Amino acid sequence: MPFVPGVFRCCSSVAGSDRPSFDLCCILSLITSDERVLQISSGYAHHRTATTGRYKLKLATTCVTLRRGERLRLSIAGADYPAYPVNPGTGEDPVSTPRTHAVVTTIAVWHGPSQPSQLRLPVGPGSQIAIVGT
Questions:
Q1: Rounded Cα–Cα distance for residues 77 and 21 (Å)
Q2: Which of 29, 52, 56 is nearest to 40 (CA)?
Q3: Which among 103, 83, 88, 111 is positioned nearest to 27, based on CA atoms?
Q4: What is residue 120's three-state secondary structure?
């Protein structure tokens, strides 16, 4: 059984954002063989300036053993409310800016061979993980 201990890292290739600032939230979940979804780690970052490029996000340290038929899922979102304040997308401070100033923000995340996004796993000794799907 694959044993995955330690710190996970998400490296996202961001094509851009239509606003001056944005947030990235990455949630790593375990999908059991009976399709239950269990969150095992997450990470969050506030980016005050939106630029095209690679964004690295450290997820919380965790330890998980994958059984046959179980899968990992990485979800990428532009917010994690109510855990973190809503980024208004205007470049203003998310804590002190009135919610009425917030605008919808679109973030384009690249994936595929030419502009890959990655999830780096600290796989334990003797473990093998097969990459399936996109």
A1: 14
A2: 29
A3: 83
A4: strand
Would you call the peptide bond into 82 cis, given omega within 30 degrees of 0 as the criterion? yes
Distances (CA, A) of 27 to 34, 39, 80: 20, 7, 10
Domain boundaries, the chain: 3-120
According to DSSP, the β-strands at 9-17 and 37-47 are unpaired
> One-letter amino acid identity for 7?
V
3-120 is classed CATH 3.40.50.1820:
no
Single pTM value for the model: 0.80
Tens of pLDDT along the chain (134 residues) come to 666 777 788 888 787 789 999 999 999 999 999 999 999 999 999 988 888 888 888 899 888 888 889 999 999 999 999 999 999 999 999 999 998 999 999 998 888 888 778 888 777 776 666 666 55
Place of tokens 């473990």: 127
